[in-house]
């Protein structure tokens, strides 16, 4: 097993460091010279319904944001385990099931039900030949390679890459704008390498975080699913109770939890939510929580209001989901390591949940 970890202490860390390569491989699958993404799955649909569990559910929330923003197609996101019993109306819907393993029982059952309800199904899957690939009408593979660590990292980023490509493929933006965004996407491996270079800094902040038992992750817009996935990573491997909230919603209840015992991780995305997010951060600081912001490298403003800033390379705002998520994966990893946790095989969890 030591050899398979390639010199890394844990599979999770190795898999995070594989992310630049995984982005390259997934882009190559759909953007190399003679291959284009086959989008026949989208013909005649009036809405998209995502079904997924866990980290794949958070990828779906990013997918909803991207598809609604870039294409105007309405999107719903359902937990597979809820969809099975809820069976919502699926009029001319395309169901997109996202699953790393392709074996999650709830997701498979939800796909079968979606088909019975008359929807077309597309599966975004990492494991070749898995059950989901046989149930779905169409399949798009992520090229993350085998993921050993229970906590999903590189497979999540690969799912996001496929979602960017779907959203751009179906987008109603002018061709020149789509090409510009695809060029930015091609630059992501390099930008993630820059994030990985800051691992030492992130580790220092993890030392501080490791002393707490409760945390709050906040964001707005695409920052909300980023925060949710960041909090899930932290819970899964460090056993710190971490909640994620849309920053504007804190005042309706969760403010009561803030204070010096609850640090807050704030994802600041450079879009129309930036200014209001800064206001939310000021409100949080007034409740005496330590605030760690994840923000663009050229952001001069945020450092005036927070305790620590983890910088990410500047990108088009939609791609912040990639850079920020890698930061939050490393933060969870180093926090768990500092706390002496199991990391690759956390208590009570399984890589793939094959029972309903
Ligand atoms: C398990 C894993 C999670 C994963 C979820 C969904 O709970 O521990 O990391 O996100 O299943 O898995 P899937 O293979 O369907 O993406």
Low-confidence stretches: none
What ligand molecules are bound, each kind once? 6-O-phosphono-alpha-D-glucopyranose
Rg computed from alpha carbons, rounded to a whole number of angstroms: 20 Å
Strand order of the largest sheet: 2-1-3-4-5
Element-level helix/strand string: HHEHEHEHEHEHHHHEHEEHEEH
Q: DSSP helix count?
A: 13
Instruction: Name the structural class.
Output: alpha/beta
Mean pLDDT: 95
Main sheet properties: 5 strands, parallel
Keywords: Aminotransferase, Cytoplasm, Glutamine amidotransferase, Repeat, Transferase
GO molecular function: glutamine-fructose-6-phosphate transaminase (isomerizing) activity
Enzyme class: transferase
Catalytic activity: D-fructose 6-phosphate + L-glutamine = D-glucosamine 6-phosphate + L-glutamate
């Amino acid at each position: 097993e030591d050899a398979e970890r390639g010199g890394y202490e844990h599979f999770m860390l190795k898999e995070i460091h594989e992310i630049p390569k995984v982005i390259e491989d997934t882009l190559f699958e759909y953007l190399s010279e003679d291959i284009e993404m086959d989008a026949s799955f989208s013909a005649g649909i009036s809405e998209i319904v995502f079904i997924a569990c866990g980290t794949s559910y958070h990828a779906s929330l990013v997918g909803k944001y991207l598809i609604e923003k870039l294409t105007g197609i309405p999107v719903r996101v359902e937990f597979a385990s809820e969809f099975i019993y809820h069976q919502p109306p699926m009029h001319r819907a395309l169901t997109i099931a996202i699953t790393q393993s392709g074996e999650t029982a709830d997701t498979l059952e939800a796909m079968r039900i979606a088909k019975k309800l008359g929807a077309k199904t597309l599966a975004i899957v990492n494991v070749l030949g898995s059950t989901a690939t046989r149930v779905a009408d169409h399949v798009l593979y992520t090229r993350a390679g085998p993921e050993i660590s229970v906590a999903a990292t590189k497979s999540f980023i690969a799912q996001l890459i496929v979602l960017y490509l779907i959203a751009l493929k179906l987008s109603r933006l002018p061709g020149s704008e789509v090409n510009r965004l695809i060029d930015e996407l091609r630059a992501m491996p390099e930008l993630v390498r820059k994030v990985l270079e800051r691992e030492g800094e992130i580790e220092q902040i993890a030392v501080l975080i490791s002393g707490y038992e409760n945390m709050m992750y906040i964001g707005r817009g695409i920052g909300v699913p980023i925060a949710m996935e960041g909090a899930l990573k932290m819970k899964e491997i460090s056993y710190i109770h971490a909640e994620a909230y849309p920053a504007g919603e804190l005042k309706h209840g969760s403010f009561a939890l803030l204070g010096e015992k609850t640090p807050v991780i704030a994802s600041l995305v450079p879009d129309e939510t930036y200014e209001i997010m800064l206001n939310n951060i000021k409100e949080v600081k007034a409740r005496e929580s330590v605030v760690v912001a994840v923000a663009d490298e050229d952001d001069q403003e945020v450092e005036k209001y927070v305790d620590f800033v983890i910088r990410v390379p500047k990108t088009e705002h939609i791609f912040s989901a990639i850079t920020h998520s890698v930061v939050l994966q490393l933060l969870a990893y180093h926090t768990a390591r500092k706390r002496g946790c199991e990391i690759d095989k956390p208590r009570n969890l399984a890589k793939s949940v094959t029972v309903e």
